[in-house]
Every structure is written in structure tokens, then in C-alpha cells.
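Box 3.1 A note on notation
Throughout this textbook, protein chains are presented in two layers. The first layer is the amino acid sequence; the second is a C-alpha cell string describing backbone geometry. Keep the layers aligned when reading.
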Amino acid sequence: MTRIVCQQLAPRIADLAANRALARTAIREAIDAGADVVVLPELVTSGYVFASREEAATVAIAPDDALLTEWAAEAARGDAIVVGGLCEQGADGNLYNSSAIVDPTGVRAVYRKLHLWDREKLVFTHGEQAPPVVETRVGRIATVVCYDLEFPELTRAVALAGAQLLAVPTNWPLGPRPAGERPPEAIVAMASARINRMAIACADRAGTERGVEWTSGTTIVDTDGWVQAESREPGAVTADVDLALALHKAHTDRADLFADRRPEHYGAVVAALGSTKP
């Protein structure tokens, strides 16, 4: 079993030093609790509700920043893997809403969010590369960011690339939902996990930032699509998940999630490329 710990945190907007300490403490606490994988929220290094691109640039960091080196040093204490969001300063001069996969050897991969939500488009540049799938001691881990999870084409592609665990740093704005219902984003995670037989760990954030209230919807879903842990309170959300199950896509001797695909009939999914919006 792999112990996954998602830390539901409340980073401070544009306060790099405070968020650096917050993330480091959260990683340490998770590893002390036996975490094999630690997932932190989207933009945990910087906060989210920027007034402008210029404000975001003041707290943007490159993937070789000492902050991520600290994550690797903490990971080494438990031979763990850490996945967390950052405001990335690209070498091309652009800012990216990114997620880093870090282990004791350092930064293994950085993914730039492909699908930018609402006003993010005024601050960040879209990523252009598919989510990396990284071989780790616990299995193959991939990462996407928040709104990316809403696009089944992307999560399917990640599963087809061999991911056993999809780590999702996220900031879900609180929206209306019927009493007693889970956040819709958590339901999407459950469905994505089930149709791909791939575990999904979503680390949401807590609190309110510049008038935006967050869902605090951190959810860990197993390879059959069932929620193993969730919380609406700040702090650690922990589940032990068998990632080896993600290697086997068969429901029965004659029903297999991947072998039964009929991609020759799925052309409509990509046929709209280049077309205008309705």
C-alpha cells in the first residue's frame, strides 16, 4: 500500500517567505506521519488571486529555485515524493501555473497547466506539453493542475501513458451545490479514477483569499473510483491506496477498460480542433 497525504493549506497571497515555511512544515509533518506521497495545493508557493501579472512576477520562481531543493531535502527524510503547485518563472519570460514532482534526488518533472481557468489567462501562459509520467519507488506518478481535471481527454491520455496515481494540486472556488453533495470537482475525480482505474489525489486549499472562498474539498480516490479520504478542514488528509491495482484494467475475463476501447470511432473528440467556438 502507498500512503498518500494531501495537505489542505491556506497560503498567503504574494508572500513567498511565509508560503515557503508553510509548505516545508506541511511536507515534514506528512512524512513524519509515514507519507510515501505528499500532495500540496495549486500555487502553494505564491497564493492565487493576483491583482496583476506584475504582482505574480514578484513571487515567481524557476524550477531550480532553492525552495524546491528544500522540498527534495524534506522528501529525503522519508524517501518520499512531493507534488505541489508553484508560480513558475519560465526561461522564456512567461509565467506558468505549474506543478512540480520532487523526490530525494531533486525535481523530477515540472508540468505547466494546459487549461487556464477564468482570470488565470490574464496572468499565466498556457502550457504546451503533456503531463509527465514519472517512475518512482511507489509506481508511476503524473500530475495535472485543478481545471485540467475537467477534461477527460487529458486524464485518459495520462492513464494510457501508464500513470498509476494522478496528483492534482488545486484551488477549487466554492460554488453552490445541493445539501449533502460532494463538490462537483470531487465527483469528476471519482469518475476519472473509475473509468481509467487510476488513483487520483486532489489537494485543495483552505480559507478565503481576496474575497474568494475556497471549497476545501481535498479528496483521495482509489483505483475503483471510491473516496478513501476527504476533508473540509485545514490539515492533512491521508489514505493508504494500492497503486498496483492500476496496472490491471480488466473488470472480468471479457471486459477490459483499455482493450475494449474503440478509438477509430472517437474522431469527433479531435475533429473540432481548429474550429471556431459555437
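The mean pLDDT is 96. The first strand starts at residue 2 and ends at 8.
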